User: What shape does this take?
Amino acid sequence: MLSQKSANIKSSPVRELLKYTKKPEFISLAGGIPATDMLDVDGIDTIIQDILAIDHRQMFQYSVTEGEAELRTEITKFNLHFDLHTPENNILITNGSQQAIDLLSRVFLEKGDKVLVERPTYLAALQLFSYTDAEIEEVSYQNNAIDLEALRSVLADGQVKMLYLIPNFANPTGHTLDYQTREQIVKLVHEYHVIVVEDDPYGYLRFEGEMVPSLYAIAQSMYGNNHNICYMSSFSKIFAPGLRLGWLAAPDKFLSAIVVAKQALDLHTSTFNQHIAAKYLASGRLMERLSLLQTTYKHRRDLLINALKKHLGDKLSYNTPSGGMFLWCHINLDINATDLLAACIEEKVIFVPGEVFFAKHPDKKSLRLSYSMLTNENADEAAIRIAKAIEKLQ
Assistant: This one.
């Protein structure tokens, strides 16, 4: 009874691993989720009580598809702190940034098109693109950076419709595109009329180094509103993932079609949740908490790296990210990550094997470790358990 597409697309291995996170004896380095202990429950509760203290019945009514004006205005103000100009009339509120990817796929991709992704890239984006009739191709990398000459060659064949990028602290690699690469990408996609989906849920979580302007901002400075960059972000990593709130900024020439697609899907995002986010932003609490999040994640990154050095030595290699939540690792032994995960489950520690993040020809010795939930108490123990699992396989 299932369609051929649905029958062929498997559940996310990350979601499958979540059952272990409910077991207190397990240490999870798997989920790309914000630290539960960092959620501002008291602040959110205060906002909700303030809302309910007033007879705001409209907050429980239907809303406009574009999203509540108050929230779009607050997002515009918030982004100015990061040198990102997103006029409220160019913003669409979505059910997380995942829905934004879905909407853009529906609006732009059709049979015969090619969508380019980084190698490796966000698993859920690969799942979503698999539901389209477009062909998924991987962008070539050289010396840990996008090969711009190879990118030009691929774009020049005229078959590429969309380029999907996570420019800041990417999931799963933690890699960030430098300014020169971003600038060249903006020029190339403009020359070859390719749409860029700039997915940026982690950009607010930079804890080292200088901020790099978004492709969206670079394109605005070069081409005004006549560019091909659709920028999206989310409140999931910095505020409250359970509210399922994200947003998309697109140039005028694209926005109306994207809004119509959302109308067809779900009419609009939760009115009440939008008001919670709008009032939280207006209160200034999110800007205040960002520095705390950044400091905490830097500490947890360092905890993980120090534990890996201490207990695994050169058995794993990795780059050190300057923000975000992820450490991308390579196993320097004759062991693949899937077998290692099975052994780690026996030791009650979990991670995500890297092969699931590749569209083609997966690297079976890669793995993603998330440090967002790590603590002072369990960092060493997590590394010790991984080391024990490796010993079993040698």
Q: What stands out?
A: The chain has two domains: 4-40+287-389, 62-285. The first strand starts at residue 27 and ends at 28. The chain has a mean pLDDT of 93. Residues 285-312 form the longest helix (28 residues).
